[in-house]
Amino acid sequence: MKFKLYKGPEIPDVTDYIKTYISEHPDVEIYVGTDSAKGGKKDGKKGEKVTTVYITTICFRKPYKGAHYIYSKSTEYRDKDLFTKLWKEVERTYKIAQLVKPIIGDRILFLDLDINSLKQHGSNVAYAAATGFLIGQGYSVRAKPQSYGAHAADWLL
């Protein structure tokens, strides 16, 4: 997966980038989150967008000093249901968490989901499955509205 700086170049080696950043900023908190949106080509028949754009961020938050983030972007054909789209966000977040966790050692890694814990919101359809899966893998999981990593991805979309 390729990562970029916001309005900047592609990062040649994300592992080295993370190692360097956390050594220069020892108090940094780290969040990973993904969001998605309709994008890309339109279907000629109905004029609907038929792709989904996914953004996954790695956020480095310095308490009381702001945040810095890098991101990866991918596009694929749109799914027909909300649960599948949300689960793909969870999979992308998990994949990046598996990359980041060994690099950061004992630091807490927060996985931030663009899923709401409140039942009246549509994204709640994936809340129990997503949080259960990620917590079961040993991660600290946060959902809306405390999901800073997912908010950063939303902002990029």
Low-confidence sequence ranges: none
What's the number of structural domains?
1
Helix share bin: 25-40%
Mean of the pLDDT scores?
88
The tally of helices reads: 4
Radius of gyration: 16 Å
Strand runs, count: 7
Enumerate the strands of the largest sheet in spatial order, edge to edge or round the barrel.
Answer: 2-1-5-4-3-6-7
Element string (H = helix, E = strand): EEHEEEHEHEH
> Main β-sheet: number of strands, strand sense, barrel status?
7 strands, mixed
Oligomer status = single chain
Q: Which descriptor suits the 3D outline?
A: globular
- Which class of secondary structure composition applies to the elements? alpha/beta
The proportion of strand residues reads 35-45%
Termini gap: 18 Å
Question: Would you write up a description of this structure?
Answer:
With 157 residues, the chain is α/β, with parallel strands linked by helices. The protein has one domain. 34% of the residues lie in helices and 37% in strands. Strands 2-1-5-4-3-6-7 form a 7-stranded mixed sheet, sandwiched between helices. Helix 1 packs across helix 2 (82-104). The longest helix is centred in the middle third of the chain and has 23 residues, at 82-104. It is globular and about 50 Å long. The two termini are 18 Å apart.
